[in-house]
Design a protein that fits this description.
Immunoglobulin-like; Neutral Protease, domain 2; 5 domains; eight-stranded mixed β-sheet; five-stranded mixed β-sheet; 29 helices; 31 strands; binds (3S)-3-amino-4-(1H-indol-3-yl)butanoic acid; binds zinc ion; aminopeptidase; Peptidase_M1
């Protein structure tokens, strides 16, 4: 497939200043009249106007009201006979499209009788011919016409300026958006929806109307999203001085959506998964996700919409920055320092379990990619989460206030513009001229240019004669596709020293900024060999190779004043045990030693640590994280080791789990705050462990209690955890509970997704999961075309259940192959994400490797194949 290259960027040959769109909405044939004011870009050589279009039927093209000649060249409409001078001209294009046939869910589509749009990245071209690129910004006015009974609500960006009835039971609404925007931020919604409205007054005294539109049955699930939106608006004003710039801010939820949500100007469109939350149907994780995704999309109003991307290679300009902002928001909302740390740990876990493998695999790309075949494949954890870490490092290098100053300058310089990642870094550096960021700016930009996870090797030397401790740090970065050699990165390493009793050495906290391959740092006044706590708070997205002894890790686990590194010390201990057991010969046997178990017990019983922290500290390193440490991966062996560790924890800490369960019960009503959610997480973990122990002992008490809790639960978190404890333990009560769960929630789409996912992600026992997943494909509630449902069953099986997916007979890969091809025929974006489940096939041991290779080759050879899937599988095979 043709590659689009960043170095080929060229400004557009024409500008489009205004767009006036009229839609006659009809699911089978929607008419779109597009009137644009266009002018030549005088800075570019004179050339024909080439407009992008896809799946459109063209009826008419007029220039200044008169017919004109045109030709279709591939997917482009080419106009050659344009007015001679440089005066703006009116271009009118009339097309039709078929929203009900739009299964890709890009452009204008219909879901459950309602029209929605999705234009990022290149969906607007499926609505009308246009210069579909983010650096072309225009003001939009939109008239929507539709049958009034079927589509009583007609929404688009901006302000409603006119509405009324038309003949034949139709009606219309006219919307005008005062803000210039790129076409990827265009949106319309038409359907039978209801809304929760909330008038607000901002800190600066301006009045606004917030609205969340959903189906009538879902209205009682919108309160949390509205509170989250109000909190996000207040936070952005307080933290960054960024106000809401719209009279009306609307959110609409749909159950058919390729991604999580979309930040269309003033009219965000969301996957229902990230809007709807009611204690009876949503878990604590769902509540937290709603809060952060609502905030994320709202924050885009400045970082993405007011200042947008010049081209799609700059995607992390808006996504990395906005993820960083939503992470900071969620931390502030969490409240206490330890609740903040819990959020940080969760974010780092995502980075390590998803982004590190991406950065080490065939799809590795810089935060600012250099090339792509299909931009939709680059909405990745690298662009989003690693991009956020890069922004976080900037904050670390200039300080919190310096960062706020930098963003202020960024908006002063670039409001209303389409810019690049360089512009962001430049503004932050210019606002902080004495910072290490300003001094090292060209090297810092390597974070945007070089793929791969850097490694930092540590050694330390104590000199009793000089009472100094010298830390040596050596950085390197492995080759990635197309980048055999890497230059050194700027790596901020937050450091502190502890003595062996766990006391922080006064004055030892500092920020070390690496920018060369080797760095030596001398700490004065150190009487005896200390324990270095490094990369505190995970100050850079790197792999630290720090040969601390087990005893030193145990000291940090018990005493580090940085909660992140305290957690990390425990994870390193567990990782060591896991790797030793994976590498050992013969059957897996009790990987955890007494000291580690005792240390984990001490964490669990700790009188002051938060429940949420305890739950994270007792969670085993993820399967993918363990796999990343190995040159050759036997997924079944890793699974066996993790199961053995889990069983040990269940038995050795049995009394402690009973205590944890009983001591963390909540009385009173459900509240989704971090402290209460932490207690529920820990009781849920305790139930898992108690059911696991009961499986081996045959004692029915805890499974019975768990089943009772499942039935009596007053919120979804408790109910789901009890169900999942029974399913994980493989207890006979699990089937009964699953049936009850389905019966009770069969009309709740998002709960059904959980029901499918729980079964697809359950521990494999003798290869039983694949047949179950295959049977569930035939279930009347399974709908392959609904992305959430497809992801919950097929995505969970292929991406999140390694032991069930990596089967020695290759049947998991054959299943993957068939589903990728089946989905690709109607929704390439969803198929391409599924295709990534075999990214790391080259690391697999035999027989998995050959089987995976064969499945990949079948997909790659299939005709037809979307550009999306082709790019993923051909990179995997390269
Ligand atoms: N900016 C949004 C990206 C998005 C998207 C991209 C491709 C196809 C469908 C999509 N839906 C939403 C999401 C965000 O990061 O806020
Ligand atoms: Zn985003």
């Amino acid at each position: 497939a043709r590659l689009i290259r960043r170095e080929d960027y060229c400004p557009p040959a024409y500008w489009i200043d205004t767009v006036d769109l009229t839609f006659d909405l009809d699911p089978a044939k929607t008419r779109v009249l597009n009137r644009m004011r266009v002018r030549r870009n005088p800075d570019q050589p004179r050339q024909p106007l080439r407009l992008d279009g896809e799946d459109l039927t063209l009826a008419r093209v007029l220039v200044n009201g008169a017919g004109t000649s045109f030709r279709i060249d591939g997917a482009q409409l080419v106009l050659e006979n344009l007015p001679e001078g440089d005066e703006p001209f009116e271009l009118e294009i009339f097309t039709t499209c078929a929203p009900e046939k739009n299964t890709q869910l890009m452009g204008l589509y219909v879901s459950q009788g309602t029209f929605y749009t999705q234009c990022e990245a290149e969906g607007f071209r499926r609505i009308t011919y246009f210069l579909d690129r983010p650096d072309v910004m225009a003001t939009y006015s939109v008239t929507l016409r539709a049958d009034k009974a079927r589509y009583p609500v007609l929404l688009s960006n901006g302000n409603l300026v006119e509405a009324g009835d038309l003949e034949g039971g139709r009606h219309y609404a006219r919307w005008v958006d005062p803000h210039r925007k790129p076409c990827y931020l265009f949106a319309l919604v038409a359907g039978n929806l209801v809304c929760r409205s909330q008038p607000i007054r901002s800190r600066s005294g301006t009045d606004h109307l917030l609205q969340i539109y959903v189906r009538a049955a879902d209205l009682d699930k919108t309160e949390h999203a509205m509170h989250s939106l109000m909190a996000a608006i207040a936070w952005d004003e307080t933290r960054f001085g960024l106000p809401l710039d719209l009279e009306r801010f609307m959110i609409v939820a749909t159950s058919d959506f390729n991604m999580g949500a979309m930040e269309n100007k003033g009219l965000n469109i969301f996957n229902t998964k990230y809007i709807l939350a009611h204690p009876a149907t949503a878990t604590d994780t769902d509540f937290a996700n709603v809060e952060s995704v609502v905030a994320h999309e709202y924050f885009h109003n400045w970082t993405g919409n007011r200042v947008t991307c010049r081209d799609w290679f700059q995607l992390s300009l808006k996504e990395g920055l906005t993820v960083f902002r939503d992470q900071e928001f969620s931390m502030d909302m969490a409240g206490s320092p330890s609740a903040r740390a819990v959020k940080r740990i969760e974010d780092v876990r995502v980075l390590r379990t998803a982004q590190f493998p991406e950065d080490a695999g065939p799809m590795a790309h810089p935060v600012r990619p250099d090339q792509y075949a299909e931009i939709n494949n680059f909405y990745t954890v690298t662009v989003y989460e690693k991009g956020a870490e890069v922004v976080r490092m900037m904050q670390t290098l200039v300080g919190r206030e310096g960062f706020t100053r930098g963003l202020k300058l960024y908006f002063e310089r670039h409001d209303g513009q389409a810019v690049t990642c360089d512009d962001l870094v430049q503004a932050i550096a210019d606002a902080n001229p004495d910072s290490p960021l300003a001094r090292l700016q060209p090297q810092f930009m390597r974070w945007y240019a070089q793929a791969g996870t850097p490694r930092v090797q540590i050694s330390g030397q104590h000199d009793p004669a000089t009472r100094t401790y010298t830390l040596s740090l050596h950085q390197s970065c492995p080759p990635t596709p197309g980048q055999p050699h890497k230059e050194p990165f700027v790596i901020p390493v937050a450091a502190a020293l502890f003595d062996h009793e766990g006391r922080l050495l006064p004055g030892s906290e500092r920020l070390i900024v690496l920018h060369e391959p080797h760095t030596e740092v001398v700490f004065p006044d150190v009487d005896s060999p200390p324990i270095a706590s490094l990369l505190r708070g995970f100050s850079a997205p790197v792999i630290l190779e720090h040969p601390l002894s087990d005893d030193e890790l145990l000291v940090l686990l018990a005493h580090d004043t940085d909660p992140f590194n305290r957690w990390e010390a425990g994870q390193q201990l567990l990782l060591r045990r896991a790797l030793a057991a994976v590498r050992a010969e013969g059957p897996v046997h009790a990987p955890l030693d007494a000291a580690t178990l005792q240390a984990l017990r001490a964490v669990l019983r700790h009188p002051t640590l938060d429940a949420a922290f305890k739950e994270l500290a007792l969670t085993l390193p993820a399967h993918t994280y363990i796999a990343e440490q190995l040159d050759e991966v036997d997924p079944q062996r890793i699974h066996a080791v993790r199961e053995a560790m889990r069983t040990q924890l269940a038995h050795a800490l049995h009394e402690d789990w009973i205590w944890a369960y009983e001591a963390h019960q909540d009385s009173g009503g459900y509240r989704p705050d971090a402290a209460a959610a932490g207690r529920r997480a820990l009781t849920g973990m305790a139930l898992h462990m108690l059911c696991l122990a009961a499986r081996d002992s045959g004692n029915p008490v805890w499974p019975g209690k768990t089943y009772q809790r499942f039935k009596d639960a007053t919120n979804m978190t408790d109910r789901y955890q009890a169900l999942s404890a029974l399913v994980s333990a493989g207890h006979e009560l699990a089937e009964r509970a699953l049936a009850l769960f389905h019966e009770r929630f069969r009309h709740e789409e998002l709960v059904l997704d959980k029901w499918f996912a729980l079964q697809a992600g359950a521990p494999d026992r003798g290869g039983d999961i694949l047949p179950r997943v295959q049977a569930l494909l035939q279930h009347p509630d399974f709908h392959l075309r609904n992305p959430n449902r497809a992801r919950s069953l097929i995505g969970t099986y292929c991406h999140a259940n390694p032991a069930a997916f990596h089967r020695a007979d290759g049947a998991g890969y054959a299943f993957w192959r068939d589903r990728v091809l089946e989905i690709d025929a109607f929704n390439p974006q969803v198929a391409a994400r599924l295709a990534r489940a075999l990214d790391r096939w080259k690391k697999l041991a035999e027989p998995y490797r050959s089987q995976a290779h064969a499945a990949l080759r079948v997909v790659a050879a299939h005709e037809p194949l979307s550009t999306d899937v082709r790019e993923v599988v051909s990179r995997a095979l390269a």
